[in-house]
Write a structure and sequence with these properties.
10 strands, 5-stranded mixed beta sheet, alpha/beta, about 170 residues
């Protein structure tokens, strides 16, 4: 299956093409992105690198947040438009869930945390199940100040071993 995946939720997003689960081509945002322009340029570039066209894409996977309200809207609108134009499915993907899936921690519980700006953090707790583990959200995520976040995690993690996964952002 050919997937065009993209994240427009922050200035550190990008676009990638996957073929049967393997990354084929990718492009990262150069920062301070104007995704209403750069998303389409990056998509064209990675598809060309993969020797594909938009009509070859079988699934559009788009980051659905949390993150920049405007960036998220641009990504979701593009995914819906491409999905309709090419009669292909669209799948929203939580950035926090993608973080824990990528990190593959060896614990039963993991917490994804990312900067929400203005002194706040986005966070969500995930539980592992099965082998290899599949991660599922343990309730809703939270937007909190750092001092509040530790208590929120402790209350929900029930004192089991937890791995924290933070989104790295280039300075």
């Amino acid at each position: 299956m050919i997937v065009l995946a993209f994240d427009t939720t922050s200035e550190y997003g990008g676009v990638a093409v996957y073929r049967d689960g393997d990354g084929v081509a990718s492009a990262r945002s150069a920062g301070a992105a104007n995704y209403s322009v750069t998303l389409f340029e990056m998509a064209d570039r990675v598809l060309a690198q993969a020797g594909l066209a938009l009509r070859d894409v079988e699934l559009f996977a788009v980051a659905s947040g949390p993150g920049s309200f405007t960036g998220t809207r641009v990504g979701l609108a593009a995914a819906q438009a491409w999905g309709r134009a090419f009669e292909r499915p669209v799948q929203g993907v939580s950035v926090l869930e993608a973080m824990v899936e990528e990190a593959r921690p060896e614990t039963e519980i993991a917490v994804s945390v990312m900067d929400a700006r203005r002194g706040e953090l986005f966070a969500q707790i995930f539980h592992a199940a099965g082998q290899p583990p599949s991660w599922s959200a343990a309730g809703e995520g939270v937007l909190a100040r750092p001092a509040e976040l530790a208590a929120w995690i402790e209350e929900r993690a029930a004192r089991r071993p937890v791995t924290a996964i933070a989104r790295e952002q280039d300075a």
